[in-house]
Amino acid sequence: MSIEIVNVGKRFGDFVALDEVSVSIPSGRLTALLGPSGGGKSTLLRIVAGLERADTGKVEIEGVDATGLPPQKRNVGFVFQQYAAFKHLSVRRNVAFGLEIRKRPKDEIRRRVDELLALVHLEQFADRLPAQLSGGQRQRMALARALAVEPTVLLLDEPFGALDAKVRKELRDWLRRLHDEVHVTTVFVTHDQEEALEVADEIVVINDGRVEQIGSPDELYDRPANEFVMRFLGPVTQLGDQLVRPHDLQLSTEGGDQAGLPGRVTRVTRIGFEIRVEVTADDGQTVTVTLTRNEFLALGIQADSAVRIRLAPNSPTTTATSPAQRAAAPSLAATH
Amino acid sequence: MTSTTLVPDRPAGNRRSAPGGLPLTRVSGLGLGVAMVWFSLLVLIPLAAVAVTASQGGWSGFWRTVTNEQTAATIRLTVGTALLVTLVNIVMGTLIAWVLVRDRFFGKRALEILIDVPFALPTIVAGLVLLSLYGPGSPLGVNIANTRIAVFLAFLFVTLPFIVRTVQPVLAELDPEVEEAAASLGSSRYTTFRRIVLPSLTPAIAAGAALSFARAVGEYGSLVLLSGNLPMRTEVASVRILSSIENDNPDSAAAVAVVLLAISLAVIVVLDAIQRRVMRRG
Amino acid sequence: MADRSIAARTQVGRRPGRYVLRAVVTAYLFFLVAWPLYLVGRNAFADGFTNLNDILGDPDVTHALRLTVVIAVTAVVINTVFGVGISILLVRYDFPGKRALNALLDMPLSVSPIVVGLALILVYGGRDGWFGPTLEAAGLQIIFAVPGMVLATVFVALPLVIREVVPILQEVGDEQEQAARSLGANALQTFRRITLPSIKWGVIYGVVLSLARSLGEFGAVKVVSGNVLGETRTATLVVEEKYLNFDKGGAYATAFLLALVAVACIIVVSVLRPKEDR
Where is this region: Disordered (chain A) (predicted)? Predict the structure, then answer.
């Protein structure tokens, strides 16, 4: 295990940012700390980097107790959401910074920087100032700068948060491929479940200063530990007292299969390739079902059709606790 | 921002006392200690010494000194003229800031530099400068030397930059869309200024006015050559303190100085309150 | 840059009111500052270069000028070190009494220079100051000597560097410093390589402003100097003395030199500053 976080607690005044958090982060993997803003995930990352001091608990990096070490002694690479580019230094000098601090020979620095600039595709921008780069380029520079010191672990705090959607997607793919090449233990913080599911080997879901679940993307999606994880990882709707995914629901018309909950279609909305059908069950509950266009056409339903709703076999479900929590969690609309 | 903001009088530092920041480390704690010792030796202890010296004669002694006919006259003249000058500055300073931000014309850059001259110019030179236009042998044919107008003029000169430089950055950052919105809702230019622009400038104007008032009350150098320092007529508080010092009467010097310090302190408190209000408003 | 766009957007029509305002402001500044300032220059050169040559040939005056520069430079160095240090403490750290300190640091801006001088005499005066006799017994005279003049000058110019540096430190934020720390830089390396370059312009403005203020300090220095001819007399004191002794030419010439430096300082700052905004 590369990073061992044991019973780490942190308060800011009365606010409990982290409540006795314990996580083991595996070596050589790409791990995401996923959760809503203010949930404590960035604080945890900053504690690992030494930029923030834990009130209680212990942090071990590759077997070394790092709890009391200042950031400059931890040999971690840290990438900030806002890049933290050294504005007065050229791209090359930015990347070389950590090596210059370590007093490496000049030609070694030059060689290493050239390698890294090639790795992040910034060779032709070496002599520019950060202000002359785009956001995505600046973030790649920040990554090269963090990698230059050959860190034990690479920590990224919402690395793509300040970028627009398209660049974000590109950099996400690129980070995944980079990690497959470099294999440095990497931890990144994100509030975007899609980003975590797509990029990470391992996801730690953090909410309200506590770890909700740790697992691979598949484990988390297929076997959510609780209602929070279920809601946070994707759209949900309530069927009886179960939370289910709208696309795990199947509809059948009268006359067909008689299994499932009877109801009536109250609204049909088309969003591109997907059809969202709102069904009001006979007991008054409103259930959302998403279908593909072809499924929808095959069923031949419209508003006011009588239908039955059934859950596809082996679909993940969790028990819905209180309806009040429903409003707080990401709603169906927000995740689209 | 194109203004040169030479004068350190904008309500800056409104975020500098914002809560947060790291707890002190060993090195920074030591640094703070050294800085505090220096600041105490230079500023706090000497100012405390003024207060202590003033209080040595007891309240009645203090009161007798500051209500002495000649002393009271200097305080009245100083505070009264400073108030008058501050009022003029509120109007003229806001007007100048407005023109510098909203207008464009040849020579504006030169005006920008002129605004800062009174701040950088040695006060004794400022007095001489005013004397050359408004004193004996004036090309304008006026001679206000040794009159109360001279005191007014000197105060006006040395306080010129304060309100201009506090208002200017705030005005430059005002979102013109807000004014456009007001106009689109049928507000006239004057109404827009009075109801939309002026309220957002008020904290800056107040901060500048407070500094301008404090500066005027403590002014000395520009008056030396200009006002003649005639007792009961053109003598200001600072001059009175100086003559007490020169007559080897530190107790009465300290008593008058305490009055001026109280005004300075009040200004600091006002500024702090304004900054806090601006900060809350975001 | 900002004011250009605002001017363009809010002054679409060419209204007569605009010209009236422009004329009022220009006239006000002309009569209050520009014309008087010009007259000092003209009076200084009323007899050609005679006045200037006279004062530059007077060893008392040249000594005063040298002393002025020495005191001002010393004060600026002290205020720069103190100012940068205290700015970092105020912006980056949290400690009890921060708000009070922050407010008190502005105090020198609103205290009368005469009160500054009095306060220093009461503490450091050689005869009956609080610390003065002890210090004098140890061979260190402060009041009526150069150290007191330096103290007075440091006092009046104290907040200038702080007021320039603090907003820049806040604007820059601490992320670059954190990044430097995570890359292995210690506190000193971080300060020298990251913090200092990013506040460079603020420090430069602060230094220029402090220099202008320090060269021109009059009241506080007058009180603590004792004005000993050829020893503790500065340039501003020369102006006063020459004028009162009816050597108006000399007074104007010295005043002209001081004004020249002051205006040069303003121009330097106003030329430098927009560059940073670009």
Answer: 314-336
